[in-house]
């Protein structure tokens, strides 16, 4: 799959088969995440890969829109230092991981963890770290019934040329 096609066709998926993600595929997506650049190449982001069923249920309670993740195959939590962590770095890493997964026929969905006290308890993060975002990963299941694909705004609405008024 070429890069443009992978980016254009990637959709966030919340339906997974119950089988585990093969180790070599998991390693490949983690390698893709690793290559994301970071501000000043500080590389402050760490990944916590969760497959334990009980921990995934705990993670499901860490976000306002994550109740569905408890039975998914893999949840990757992006852990960053509270003081210096950058969400832009996390986003780049997450997108690398998700595009690599899509290229390999795996499904993913980004998720938000709003409740950091619960997060620290769930995966043992120290007080100076937080895990605000994650990605769910697995072999795609049947498409959810009657869930319309989220459209994107037109290019000329998205893009301003030279200045805001342009
Ligand atoms: C920053 C970010 C946070 C998100 N958080 C959640 C979440 O907590 N729960 C969830 O189910 N989906 C979450 N999503 C997925 C969005 O709902 C999804 O990207 C959007 O609906 C577009 O879906 P599509 O790519 O399939 O068209 C998140 C996406 C992004 C980019």
Automatic annotation (TrEMBL):
Keywords: Flavoprotein, FMN, Oxidoreductase. One of its GO terms (molecular function) is oxidoreductase activity. Its cofactor is FMN. It comes from the Bacteria. Pfam families: Nitroreductase. Residues 9-60, 86-136 form the Nitroreductase domain. Belongs to the nitroreductase family. This is Nitroreductase domain-containing protein. It comes from uncultured Acidimicrobiales bacterium. The lineage of its organism: Bacteria, Bacillati, Actinomycetota, Acidimicrobiia, Acidimicrobiales.
């Amino acid at each position: 799959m070429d890069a443009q096609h992978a980016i254009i066709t990637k959709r966030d998926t919340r339906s997974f088969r119950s089988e585990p993600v093969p180790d070599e595929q998991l390693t490949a997506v983690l390698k893709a995440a690793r290559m994301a650049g970071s501000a000043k190449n500080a590389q402050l982001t760490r990944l916590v890969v969760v497959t334990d069923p009980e921990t995934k249920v705990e993670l499901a309670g860490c976000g306002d829109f994550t109740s569905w993740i408890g039975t998914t195959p893999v949840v990757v939590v992006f852990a960053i230092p509270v003081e210096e962590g950058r969400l832009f770095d996390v986003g780049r890493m997450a997108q690398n991981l998700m595009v690599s997964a899509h290229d390999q026929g795996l499904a993913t969905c980004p998720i938000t963890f709003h409740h950091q006290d619960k997060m620290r308890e769930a995966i043992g993060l120290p007080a100076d770290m937080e895990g605000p975002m994650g990605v769910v990963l697995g072999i795609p299941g049947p498409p959810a019934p009657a869930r319309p694909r989220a459209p994107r705004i037109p290019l000329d609405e998205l893009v301003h040329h030279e200045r805001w008024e342009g």
